[in-house]
Amino acid sequence: MIEWVDKEKVFKDPVHDYIYVKDRLIWDLINTRAFQRLRRVKQLGTSFLTYHGAEHSRFTHSLGTYETMRKVLSHFERNFGWPTDDRVRLLALCAALLHDIGHGPFSHTIERVFQFHHETWTQRILIDDPEVTNILQRVDDDFPQDVADVIAKKDKFPLVVKLISSQLDVDRMDYLLRDAMNTGVTYGTFELERLIRVMRPVGNDVVVKKSGMKTVEQYILARYFMYSQVYLHPVTVSSDVLLRHVVARVKTLWDREESVFLPAELKPFLSRKAEQISVAEYLELDESVMNYTMQRWTRADDPILRDLSDRFVNRHLFGVVDTRELKEVERQTIRELFRNCGLDPDYYLSFQTATTGGYHMYHQGITLVDESGRDLGDISKHSSLVRSLSPESKFRIFCPKEVLRGEGKYKPIRGWLDAMKE
Amino acid sequence: MIEWVDKEKVFKDPVHDYIYVKDRLIWDLINTRAFQRLRRVKQLGTSFLTYHGAEHSRFTHSLGTYETMRKVLSHFERNFGWPTDDRVRLLALCAALLHDIGHGPFSHTIERVFQFHHETWTQRILIDDPEVTNILQRVDDDFPQDVADVIAKKDKFPLVVKLISSQLDVDRMDYLLRDAMNTGVTYGTFELERLIRVMRPVGNDVVVKKSGMKTVEQYILARYFMYSQVYLHPVTVSSDVLLRHVVARVKTLWDREESVFLPAELKPFLSRKAEQISVAEYLELDESVMNYTMQRWTRADDPILRDLSDRFVNRHLFGVVDTRELKEVERQTIRELFRNCGLDPDYYLSFQTATTGGYHMYHQGITLVDESGRDLGDISKHSSLVRSLSPESKFRIFCPKEVLRGEGKYKPIRGWLDAMKE
Amino acid sequence: MIEWVDKEKVFKDPVHDYIYVKDRLIWDLINTRAFQRLRRVKQLGTSFLTYHGAEHSRFTHSLGTYETMRKVLSHFERNFGWPTDDRVRLLALCAALLHDIGHGPFSHTIERVFQFHHETWTQRILIDDPEVTNILQRVDDDFPQDVADVIAKKDKFPLVVKLISSQLDVDRMDYLLRDAMNTGVTYGTFELERLIRVMRPVGNDVVVKKSGMKTVEQYILARYFMYSQVYLHPVTVSSDVLLRHVVARVKTLWDREESVFLPAELKPFLSRKAEQISVAEYLELDESVMNYTMQRWTRADDPILRDLSDRFVNRHLFGVVDTRELKEVERQTIRELFRNCGLDPDYYLSFQTATTGGYHMYHQGITLVDESGRDLGDISKHSSLVRSLSPESKFRIFCPKEVLRGEGKYKPIRGWLDAMKE
Amino acid sequence: MIEWVDKEKVFKDPVHDYIYVKDRLIWDLINTRAFQRLRRVKQLGTSFLTYHGAEHSRFTHSLGTYETMRKVLSHFERNFGWPTDDRVRLLALCAALLHDIGHGPFSHTIERVFQFHHETWTQRILIDDPEVTNILQRVDDDFPQDVADVIAKKDKFPLVVKLISSQLDVDRMDYLLRDAMNTGVTYGTFELERLIRVMRPVGNDVVVKKSGMKTVEQYILARYFMYSQVYLHPVTVSSDVLLRHVVARVKTLWDREESVFLPAELKPFLSRKAEQISVAEYLELDESVMNYTMQRWTRADDPILRDLSDRFVNRHLFGVVDTRELKEVERQTIRELFRNCGLDPDYYLSFQTATTGGYHMYHQGITLVDESGRDLGDISKHSSLVRSLSPESKFRIFCPKEVLRGEGKYKPIRGWLDAMKE
């Protein structure tokens, strides 16, 4: 079943130094159009507008996730004799490599409006893209569906699912290190080799030696810091708000049948439901299309679309005010104030709640074991640090900076905002 | 004349840790459209197809060049009392920040076909872009032209020119470190702080203490290694060849008045001369436009354009054969062989000479001085290592891999190539 | 008052890249015998027996602490105009440079037995070492005492004291990064430049901008991880136990007037009280003396001293058992069991409680302020992460590994230990 | 024959992240007295007096050399099926681990005076130290001698010899990276993984793929830069001169039967020939002994010994003058001038020639091969860079700085030196 490449292949990588490929299957998957397309989807969406170094793509992250899985499997094979069969090994490697293949442009920001639910699309591509599916079927006919089921967290291969998607998965291990390196921060740093060394497969679970608890804490904290300092940075959220408003405006114009520039690649997403869009159509859409289109919209007839697009493309972002949590009636009041100043609050105002995920035990906690393998319960039982990580919410209002400065007609808004400040 | 920002501003950077801005002028230049556009031009063009990490933009490099200049000036001010006036300091900082502002999409690869001579455009933008020029004029009316003259290496401000563009310039210092970091190689590594410390301004020249000669050698070698291992990597050159052929094909189709998809942003470059293109038109063009357009061309009617674009977008690149230098008659022979196989050699064959620049003393050598400041002549007089760096040329043929494998009708080509191998 | 060195001097440093010296005072202090002696005292005592890379000295750390202070002062001067006078600047720099000058060999481990209370000795050296004191007096006659008072945390220069010794001091900033680098772990990593940037001097306190809270958390966590993973690593504690037992045995032999090799440098510490030891005598003692002496003791007549020294020098360390906290009566029982096996529990058994310091608000908490400088109270009010860091204690028993394996006569001990296990 | 440790053991390392041990043989060798003693011998001798970070020991380097060999063997096994038998694998690993076991204190500096010829001692220890030899004999009776023969470059196992000691050996690979990291310079940086990947075993030689030539160049240059910037740094050479003079003075005093402090460990080296010194005696000597003894000598009766020791211990080093090569008669003249000033030139003057080794093809050049394995000859045939590295000599005079300043009676010396300056 297993076919090797002629010689061990490598990719030079800034995080892992080298990424090693010896299975022809993996090599061929990397060379598909669907996978190469990930070069045109940024790993961190609009974060490059905050941290200029965050220009890396999902392509590099996907290779890194594969390599991390390869390292975990090598440790498991050397020290615990798992996996015993090559099909499971390949399943784990393919799922790691392809876990993000369904991501569209700026998915986390605009997928709801544009029907990009990326996990669904990942599964569709795995079983419906002629090129990808064909390669996977070389293992056997059920293989594409099995990879898709791992992505869908179905429980046929629970250990593989754990490694792909849990509190302790190879996806997160790679992105924390990679995003930290590219943004230039150390917040996402943790001891990767040591973390892998304290993991072990036990039954259907991946558990951790008690003596490795602090290493797991460091890794959990890396995520905590990256969320607050990078992923939910107010400037990034502000960029997301703008992008979402741009897209919402286009949708409104389209629904009203007003004239607006739309490339062929984008039309299906406005006119049809996700189920009616083919895998081939989906794969046409990437950030080259979106970026080009937004640049065109900076010259749109519609003044709102033109203005919002210009703000996004040329980085004249909305400003932010930290507030306490607002009641609905308060939100109505400020919306009214915006309307009075001639600003449509649907496009020039946004209430955002940014929630840093704490540590969740349910479904996917991290179990500790002692030297003899005895179950010691979830890490949260043992670590006050982990328990302290309950979700934290921040309430923020985003709107144009000229409004925040309270110039001229915006003075009443400024006054109201000051009163709401945290 | 000098206006500070309210508080010292910083950008987090993966190479320099922080980039410090205290001049309002710099801050405002960064926020112009023309400068933000550099986020949409990759620093290393097509290199990401070789080193997947090379996804960084000219925006990040331009900030880094500014920061490197800031460090050099700080050293010069602390230890040698230069520059004495703030206008020269600002001139150096602005020239560093803006030195790449005229780069178009994949400039090094396609600027000849598409009229992007980037240094000319940099100068035009500096004196003709309303936003940029206006900000520069805050210093005084001559300031935009002075910055442009520095870029053009005119000799009014020889020390600033030296620092921007010579064998020992801040541009190169930043890009070597940044390209190395992003590709994940150490070839471009050198001792930045020490290099700066051994530099000193003397008259119209920037010279180096003899005791720092080895540090300069390390820096010169960093360039040597980056050229051979990264910039002139055969896979990158192969990508460049494809891209150039795509663009050449479009030009041919346009000249023949055949139907081909062309966005508004690209038309001026096919129909008019550079001088007739406005700065505003020029700034519309970036890699979003080019990438989107090439994706469209993967569905073009013309089979050659369709095929070449598909190869580029989906990374099915040409293969390479190292040869000895070929005579014109040999080139004709192989072109004929291609034609006989039904492959148009204009698009499916390329002879490339990749030349690693050696060290050039003329005009911009590096002068050593002893402790007392006495001129010891050019570094090449003292360093056999530097003298050994004469330009090296590699001769390579690029064509489709199926041809190189010599399958079926391509067998004769294969045979001919084998005979030419180095 | 201020005298500069001829040219800016630098030291190449693996943590800070360069350490900059421009004051002749600092330069001359570095060249004193008392400061050079710090090269012969390891920064992490016995940790090199756990992490082989931990071979760095207090000399390198002291230079790094100076450099960190220099960076903090540069930020404070640039952005807040403090300190306004050069004497305070020098006071801060000297205190940072000299804060560890009183450390003796393996101080943290054996200072109680050998009268090395290092902070007291630091103060004595500052005001009593002819070389050091003379240099400091160049500023003025009170200067040596002022530096000593800063070390003693007296409140004449509260801001300087804060920077030298608090939850947010330059000592800790340097040692976390340096110890992490040398041991090869990332646990001590944090954002040094950013941490410095969010600090500000307000009245008598150094406070932190609220927006920098997460950066402070990262730094506090760095300490937490370094304590549990490095400083209190059981193998290091085990090495400390052995060393302490070696020294205790020598003291007993000396008190019993038994013959034991003792170099002249060590005798004062056994025969006199600290107050009766001169600064000159104190400075004779360093790790060269201690290490040489211990090697000699591996050939001592006394079998216990010989055995313990051999275990330390050749790294045959005691093993460890994690237990619950033991009552005095339990401790007596196990001591008795050791005695029954012919092992003197004073030398072959040790009960250790390793306590990771949590975050303490009292005296030296970290105050947050908002943008306008308003006091928001201690960071522990705002951060559940910081609050979760209450001190944690681990109870451990150390004794020879052959005992832990429970071979032969040691079987009963093994049984008893198993029952006590955590 | 092969016995594994219970679980894969690891050492945390700042250069390689982790060092992996699975053979019980290796584990047991690390725990011998002879190997642990390497913790008390600094890797770079007196270099810490120039680069304060250079405090690392031969212990850490020896572990790193082992790990580098392990990586090379893993690559060779995976891709070329060599070594086929476990005895050769163990031979290579043991030779790498133990290659420096015969180093004495400051060996490179003082081994001639004190009979430490370290390679000879390495071989003697391998076959004569009861602990080490016993462990090696577990493989078979000939094994200790075979390891010793590899160290002696005998040709029974030519491939292993190549990997241990040639232009492309694992010793150098580790020390370049480690010394660079600890001194804080980048000069020794090179692409370790890639270098290993382009190496291949062919017959009795380790050769390199032509496509890897630049990587080899980078590695050869790393050595070139480390020699000139670190290993032959004038301050380090100055420290070496002092140390050698200290030892020479002691030898003179001993020969004259004058009273001088001498610890038991040192006496054999003054009174007997190397052949008459036992392995046990040899292993007693390390840098703790030497450092302690030198501190004692700072209080010696002999004024020359006292002064020189004090200069070394407290870092009041000799200064340096770069000269042209001096004739014997010129040397005599300056020696006479020193004598006239009351300075014994045997102890206060030193003529040093520091020669940076170029690249030598003879015996141990680096052979390139093409893709098909065809021999292309030595790298120096192909690389002008490598050819440019002919040995370079620097001529330097070392003497007390007060002499160099030419104060008072030293004025004539100063004048003479100025005339000799390069």
Would you mind describing this structure in some detail?
The structure is a homotetramer of 422-residue chains. Chain A is 53% helix and 13% strand. Chain A has 422 residues and is α+β, with helices and mostly antiparallel strands. Chain A has a domain of 230 residues: Hypothetical protein af1432, CATH 1.10.3210.10. In chain A, the strands form 3 sheets. A 4-stranded mixed β-sheet of chain A has the order 3-4-7-8. Chain A has a 3-stranded antiparallel β-sheet with strand order 5-9-6. The longest helix of chain A is centred in the first third of the chain and has 23 residues. The relative contact order of chain A is 0.10. Chains in contact: A-B, A-C, A-D, B-C, B-D, C-D. At the A-B interface, strand 1, helix 3, helix 10 and helix 16 of A face strand 1, helix 3, helix 10 and helix 16 of B. Chains A, B, C, D: One of its GO terms (biological process) is dGTP catabolic process.
Helix content of chain A: 40-55%
Largest sheet of chain A: 4 strands, mixed
Structural class of chain A: alpha+beta
Query: On the 0-100 scale, what is the average pLDDT of chain A?
Result: 94
CATH class of the domain at 4-233 in chain A: Mainly Alpha
Query: Uncertain runs of chain A with pLDDT below 50, 5 residues or more?
Result: none
Say how many strands of chain A there are.
9
**Full CATH superfamily name of the domain at 4-233 in chain A:** Hypothetical protein af1432
